[in-house]
Design goal:
It is a single chain. With 78 residues, the protein is mostly helical. It has 3 helices and no strands.
Length: 78
């Protein structure tokens, strides 16, 4: 994540409940994925769950980017 994105998140996190929800979800998914990534071997079921979590994380990241784009645009207008 770029430094400016991190600054925008820090600035708006407490003021935008949707952004806060997606950022918290993203962090939780990252934590869960780290657990899978530390394992030397995954069962087929674990591998499917890992892929599902990765897709959820990516979708959440896309939504965070959409929200940040809204704030970037506001900054450009000001």
């Amino acid at each position: 994540m770029e430094k400016r994105d991190e600054e925008l998140i820090a600035e708006w996190l407490d003021r935008d409940p949707e952004l806060k929800r997606y950022v918290e979800e993203h962090r939780e998914l990252e934590r869960l994925l780290e657990g899978f990534n530390r394992r030397p071997y995954l069962t087929a079921q674990e591998s499917m769950e890992r892929k599902r979590l990765q897709k959820m994380k990516l979708a959440g990241r896309d939504r965070i980017e959409q929200i940040l784009a809204k704030y970037r645009q506001k900054e450009g207008v000001l």
